[in-house]
Amino acid sequence: MSSDNTNTPQTTQEARMGEGVDSRFNSTLREAFGSSPFILTKFDKFMNWVRGSSMFMLQFGIACCSIEMMHTYGVKHDLDRFGAGVPRASPRQADVIIVPGTIVSKFAPRMKRVYDQMPEPKFVVGMGSCTISGGPFQEGYNVIKGAEEVIPVDIHVPGCPPRPEALVYGVAKLQERIANGESAPVTVSPYELEQFGDLDDDELVQHLADQIDEDELVMRYDWAESPSQ
Amino acid sequence: MSLEEPSTPELDTGETLEGVDYDALESLLGEYAIGRESHVNAEAFVVRPDEVQAALELLRDEAGFDHCSCVTAQEYEDRYESIYHLRKYDDPTQEVGVVVPTTKDDPVSESANEVYRTADWHEREAYDLVGIEYDDHPDLRRILLPETWQGHPLSLDYDQEQPQVVEFAEHANPLREDHAADAQSDTMFLNIGPHHPATHGVLHLKTTLDGETVADVESDIGYLHRCEEQICQNGTYRHQIMPYPDRWDYISAGILNEWAYARAAEDMADIDVPEYAQVIRTMSAEMCRIASHMLAVATFALDIYGDFTAIFMYAMRDREVMQNLLEDLTGQRLMFNYLRLGGVAWDLPEPREEFFEQTRDFLDELPGKLEEFHDMITSNEIFQLRCVNTGVLDPETAKSYGATGPVARGSGVDYDIRRDDPYGYYDELDWDVVTEDGCDNYSRVLVRMREVEESAKIIEQCVDLLEEWPEDERNIQSNVPRTLKPDADTEIYRSVEGAKGELGIYMRADGTDKPARFKIRSPCFSNLQTLPEMSQGEYIPDLIASLGSLDIVLGEVDR
Ligand code: SF4
Fold it and tell me: What is the arithmetic mean of pLDDT over B201-222?
């Protein structure tokens, strides 16, 4: 950018900012733009960048991994450095849910409910082996074999428990992906869809489908058929 | 009960100066005792299923067994069995078991709820997992598994492959009923959890409010029931069980829990532990206790002040130091898996001097840090307003619910297994059991903070000992057979002082290298049971404070 007013000591930037705005409003980012107050970008790109740069986490603890998650939020590791460390207690204010622990049959529907309450777009970080496959408790009669049986997971952080550094890395990776507009097309289908989903849409199927009351959906844990068994 | 005043020299029936006189107990029980068994820890009397209450009442009132520490249920080929493990708060080395067999086709026995309130939840668990039913039980429902569960998973013929159904409707909106309820109703139903910042995990409290006061509160647990007992029953004694205790009480209390298993298995199979290893165990266990109590204080402050404030961050900072030390020692930050049957996994990290120096540094800084905590918490007026005289739990109630650990000690019950039933190196060291008489939330926090100091004392003495230990006597592991097969039908109940209280393990061997029954007596399970007693009639914020001061960890409540 060329300066058109070389005689005055004022910089172009200052001139454009006008009177009354003091330098406190200047940011590193503003400075990086140089004299031009405009940027040209795609709106989607911009939104993705914004999204990835400021994520609100759900304050959500399940099991042992949540202790390391607290350490990740706490001093020393301080996830907030990366713009992703404000735990919100309400799912309606959160963008990201870190699933830190073992999911059992009694908790799975509740977790799904919490997930459903989060506004779109929402992201899931699976923390620990338990959310991958049931981890050390995989053989338990009551243990869901991975978070993906209940909700879709964007990033898996393996470990039992993962070190805070690993979780930071996982979250940073997620931010990177979000900023790039990549999203993992993971879907979790309820039991009924899994059972009837691939049938031809004939009369009988229609009839059966009509019988499904969405409010009465059933979660069925078929331990023998579980994918990770 | 003469036991209330330890100063009275008179002994209970069946008590001698050396311990329990089981013959006297047998004659006390008279015809209630239809048999007698020998467990490793104590003798046990067999009682008819319809005379449980009478027998237990006798033992409690006449013989002074005021602590029902655990109820174990199990199924044999030919019968069901419930075992009540009784002890005395004054002297936990005095133990007796009450075995109640029931037939296969009609597994019903009398509930002990009338005698020991703690039996309430224990029996519900027995019903849930094993399938024994209890007569006269106030509320015999499933406790850990969903209501819709098919079968009893720890019974012999359970089919783990069968699909289980959990209806959405059941979990959909627990408030719906309340909304639909009579608009004239005076009370309001408030649902806290299972996802709620104040419940320290996945606990569900069904609260009935009358205005701002709590009319009733019922804890709904089981959201983290990870089948720990089943998994331990499927693991071999020697190596496969040890990683799991770390995950019961996962707030850095790993080594304390591992010790519970190590102690039970070592006593069962008669394994010695070298003295040097005992000192290391003692030191590392107390490190865990400090880390655990720090988090308890941090989250309690979080509950009281309602945000991630300085106290939380300070505690995190100090825990990081502790975790670094433990990582140097064990190789992991949280799931240590450091103890082995007959010793520990490896010696102190080299260079030893550096480890000692770092430990000493921490201990030197600790008083100053605790001072900061006291400035911000215990001497803070707002905090005192919230905690003094709220959540009162009187000692008798605490005992009847089987409360242990800081919860009991905060109610003036002087009960600490480290001192009363010594293990490890504790009885050689100089430290005190902390008790407070306030019985309220404040006392419980104070007990924890003061216990940190005592633990620091213990660690310091251990470091001194380890530093001087002659190099050629640093034996960390005794000889233990590769496969451990305790004799069939050996039964043992052993406990240690975990971070939250008496952590006990019951094991029965069947001659193979895996336990036939593995039962965990979790302190939090019993402590959490006292919540309604503490919070009924109090304001709802006090309920939250009481819950925080109980310092439960759901991994241990649900197991
Ligand atoms: S992965 Fe390991 S540490 Fe994490 S919740 Fe599961 S058992 Fe606990």
Answer: 86
What's the CA gap between A136 and A126, in Å, rounded?
Answer: 15
Q: What is the pLDDT of residues B463-511, one digit of tens each?
A: 988 888 888 888 888 888 888 888 888 888 989 988 888 899 999 888 8
Indicate whether B558 pLDDT > 70. yes
The DSSP result for A44-104, as a single string, is HHHHHHHHHHS-EEE----STHHHHHHHHHSTTT-GGGGT--EEESSGGG-SEEEEES--B
Cβ distance B141 to B79 under 8 Å?
A: no
- Intervals of CATH 1.10.645.10 along chain B: 228-558
B 273-302 near A (Cβ less than 8 A) = 295
Interatomic CA distance for residues A107 and A100, integer angstroms: 13
CA distance A26 to B166: 56
Beta bridge mates, B165: A220
Across the interface, do A68 and B165 touch by the CB < 8 Å criterion?
no
Rounded to the nearest angstrom, the distance between the alpha carbon of B427 and the centre of ligand 1 is 34
Strands, DSSP E only, in B111-159? 133-135
**pLDDT, tens digit, for every residue of B416-427?**
888 888 888 888
Across B246-269, b (16+ Cβ under 10 Å) vs e yields bbbbbbbbbbbbbbbbbbbbbbbb
**Residues A141, B78, B44, B61, CA torsion sign:** positive
Give all domains of chain A, ordered by start, each with its CATH number: 45-179 (3.40.50.12280), 189-229 (no CATH)
SS3 B359: helix
Report the SS3 class of residue A192: helix
What distance in Å separates the CA atoms of residue B51 and residue B33, rounded to the nearest whole number? Answer: 10
Nearest CA in chain B to A107: B223
Residue B190 CB coordination number (10 Å)? 16
- Name the residue with the closest Cα to ligand 1, atom 5: A101
Residue A201 is given by DSSP the state: -
The answer to whether B227 contacts A136, with C-beta atoms less than 8 Å apart, is no
Q: Do A58 and A87 touch, CB atoms closer than 8 A?
A: yes
Q: What is the pLDDT of residues A101-120, one digit of tens each?
A: 888 888 888 888 888 888 87
Which range of A40-44, A167-171, B172-176 scores highest in mean pLDDT? It is A167-171
Distance from CA of B166 to the nearest CA of A (A): 5
- Contact indicator for B356, B467 with CB cutoff of 8 Å: yes
What CATH topology corresponds to B228-558? Answer: Cytochrome-c3 Hydrogenase; chain B (1.10.645)
CB nearest A104 (choices: B158, B165, B224): B224
Question: Residues 6 or more apart from B556 whose CB is under 8 A from it?
Answer: B248, B249, B500, B522, B523, B524, B525
Judged by DSSP in three states, B59 sits in helix
CATH 3.30.460.80 for the B22-135 domain, yes or no: yes
Please name the amino acid found at residue A14: E
Structure tokens at A23: 């330098």
Measuring CA to CA, which residue among A87, A41, A45, A48 is closest to residue A66? A87
- Render the burial of B382-406: b for 16+ CB within 10 Å, e for the rest: ebeebbeebbbbebebbbbbbbbbb
The residue whose CB lies within 8 Å of the most ligand 1 atoms, and thus the one to mutate among A127, A130, A142, A153, is: A130
ipTM of the shown complex:
0.84
Residue A189: what pLDDT?
Answer: 45
**Tally of CB atoms within 10 A around B327:** 15
Of A109, A117, A128, A130, whose CA–CA distance to A190 is shortest? A109
More confident residue, B196 or B261: B261
Pinpoint the residues of chain B covered by CATH 3.30.460.80: 22-135
